[in-house]
Amino acid sequence: MEILNDAYIIEQLKLGNKEAFEAVFKKYYKLLNVSAFYILRDEMEAEDTVQGFFVDLWERQLYTNINSSLKAYLTTAIRNRCLKKVESETRTQKNW
């Protein structure tokens, strides 16, 4: 499947096209991993976060929420997940 641009990818995702999902994964996985690592400072945790996000993106059909830039949606989603993890860990440490 030839993917032309992000708008086309989003359109195909909303139709449930698995190849479009694979294209998103291949195109953005490394970028999202780097973004997650920048916040979490742990390679394994960054990978787990990004992989978990992609599972949710497909299984929970989160792609139906994408109305603007695909890249912006993905990077914002990863940043938010990472910040929630950091906040949760900070709270846990304070409760000790």
A few lines on this structure:
Helices cover 77% and strands 0% of the residues. It has helices at residues 6-14, 18-40, 43-59, 70-94. The relative contact order is 0.14.
Task: Write up what this structure looks like.
The protein is mostly helical and 96 residues long. Helices cover 77% and strands 0% of the residues. It contains 4 helices and no strands. The longest helix is centred in the C-terminal third of the chain and has 25 residues, at 70-94. It is elongated. The model has no long low-confidence stretch (mean pLDDT 92).
Keywords:
96 residues, mainly alpha, 4 helices, 77% helix
Q: How much beta, percentage-wise?
A: under 5%
Number of helices: 4
Give the strand tally: 0
Radius of gyration: 15 Å
Mean of residue pLDDT values: 92
Kindly report how far apart the N and C termini lie.
52 Å
Helix content: over 70%
State the secondary-structure class.
mainly alpha
Shape: elongated
What's the arrangement of secondary structure elements?
Blueprint: H1 6-14, H2 18-40, H3 43-59, H4 70-94
